Amino acid sequence: MKYIVILGDGMADEPIESLQDRTPLEAANTPALDMLSKQSELGLVKMIPDGMKPGSDTANLAVLGYDPKIYYSGRSPLEALSIGVPMKDTDIALRCNIVTLSDDDLPYEQKTMIDHSSSEISTEDAAVLMDVIRETMQNETFKFYTGTSYRHCTIWTDGRVTEFAQPHDILAQKITDYMPDEKAFYEMMKKSYDILNNHPLNIERAKKGLNKANSLWFWGAGTKPALRSFREKTGKSGVMISAVDLLKGIATGADMKVIEVEGANGTLHTNYEGKAMAAVEALTKDGYDFAYLHVEAPDEMGHQGSIERKIQAIEYLDQRVIRLVKEKMDESKEAYRIMILPDHPTPIRCRTHTSDPVPYLLYDSTKLVETAFDYNEKDAKKTGIYEDNGYTLIDHLFEK
């Protein structure tokens, strides 16, 4: 038996008036999901434990079967694992976003958070800016590492875990009330704006109608993680296919193989087919038992507040990933199970993550069931199936 998780990051949502009180999952044209849902188990699962912030870090740990209350040590340390950042036990890792703040004459702390992703800046452009940051700001206490797109890493030597505001939580708001208490971080953020706002690369981006990547924003502080091996925990060999450093870091910490796919960039226009084929080949040709296929686009479109593009991301996931994976697995003649779900909702209403339960679909090629339900939030609730501890759901996937 082969096992696959297809995770549409943040694709769950809330009813939207302009969609006739449907969610994006209900409104999207999803023939592959529609077909699977009539032959699968559907239910709701709570991935965010009570008392923990809703995030892709805690939620994806749970999807992989790691209780976040035991294994979570912060988001950035997991991303640091992915990009090969060395960490001592006394180091603190922080996410270092390159964000867009308003380009106006107001003092730094009165500027507005325009875009947490700087128009989904390319890794190549971001690397140019991070090189400048290293040249002008790096010292023995703070070291900067380039990640992917807008997501980068800072290591604070002998630091301490400190609360920072998440930039995607304060979109369109003045940053006045969200400045860090640590003076050093405030000063670095302010200095980064002075360095980056009029950098030639940002001048060119503005001419092209792109948001300037004009400030650092720190968040997600944490300590060096220690995850139990996925194979030791489950008895299954696994691969991770994702464009996002966080997911790659979780996989690295769990001793799973990380498969890099050319053109996979975490945006709406990622290489969907390449990711689908990488999962199938890992299972059918390379002998792995389990593939985790993560697609970031629905979450990013939720953060952008774009109903149309979130629906498009779900439709791409349906036709360019789910359909393709099922067709190729059927052709292989391997017995397999697929679990499809988001990690958390990212509602258009608030443009950030919530802790609400999410719908899951579990398909077994050897045990087809008959249901009248579609895959969406409302129908999943109608089934009456509910799992309160999300980290146990993977045990259900692996049940004999």
Name the descriptors:
400 residues, 13 strands, alpha/beta, 2 domains, 35% helix, Alkaline Phosphatase, subunit A, 18% strand, 8-stranded mixed beta sheet, 15 helices
Explain the layout of strands and helices:
Blueprint: E1 2-8, H1 24-27, H2 31-37, E2 41-45, H3 56-63, H4 68-71, H5 75-82, E3 92-101, E4 113-115, H6 123-137, E5 142-148, E6 151-156, H7 183-196, H8 200-207, E7 215-222, H9 230-234, E8 238-241, H10 245-253, E9 257-258, H11 272-284, E10 290-295, H12 297-304, H13 307-332, E11 336-341, E12 358-364, H14 377-382, E13 386-387, H15 393-397
Parallel strand pairs: 1-10, 1-11, 2-13, 8-9, 8-10
Antiparallel strand pairs: 2-12, 3-4, 3-6, 3-7, 5-6, 11-12
Summary?
With 400 residues, the protein is an alpha/beta fold. It has helices spanning 24-27, 31-37, 56-63, 68-71, 75-82, 123-137, 183-196, 200-207, 230-234, 245-253, 272-284, 297-304, 307-332, 377-382, 393-397; strands at residues 2-8, 41-45, 92-101, 113-115, 142-148, 151-156, 215-222, 238-241, 257-258, 290-295, 336-341, 358-364, 386-387.
What does this protein look like?
By secondary structure, the chain is of the alpha/beta class. It has 2 domains: 2-72 and 227-397, Alkaline Phosphatase, subunit A (3-Layer(aba) Sandwich), CATH 3.40.720.10; 92-222, no CATH class. It has 15 helices and 13 strands. The chain has helices at 24-27, 31-37, 56-63, 68-71, 75-82, 123-137, 183-196, 200-207, 230-234, 245-253, 272-284, 297-304, 307-332, 377-382, 393-397; strands at residues 2-8, 41-45, 92-101, 113-115, 142-148, 151-156, 215-222, 238-241, 257-258, 290-295, 336-341, 358-364, 386-387. The strands form 2 sheets. Strands 9-8-10-1-11-12-2-13 form an 8-stranded mixed sheet, sandwiched between helices. Helix 10 (245-253) links the parallel strand 8 and strand 9 (257-258). The termini are close together.
